[in-house]
Specification:
mainly alpha; 2 strands; about 5% strand; elongated
Length: about 90
């Protein structure tokens, strides 16, 4: 099992933000575009075991990473809102 924990956390955070704010479109294409932009600007955090995944998640939640994820998602939402592909 190889997992990019940053991707999982970014997806969860995007789901939270989508319910809290209105970006004009919540289709799957726009969500994928937002994730792609944000994840390209965030460092990957890989884990190869379930225990490692829990460790990485704990470390990410206890640090500046949550703020960084929200910042990058907000940036990506701004881009996608202005330049939708549909």
């Amino acid at each position: 099992m190889l997992c990019n924990v940053m991707e999982e956390i970014t997806r969860e955070t995007l789901n939270d933000l989508m319910t809290e704010s209105y970006i004009g479109c919540t289709c799957e294409l726009c969500q994928h575009d937002i994730l792609a932009i944000a994840l390209n600007r965030l460092p990957p955090q890989y884990s190869s075991t379930p225990t490692g995944e829990l460790y990485v998640k704990a470390r990410l939640f206890a640090s500046q990473w949550r703020v960084d994820v929200v910042r990058e998602l907000t940036y990506a939402m701004g881009i996608v809102t202005k330049t939708r592909r549909h």
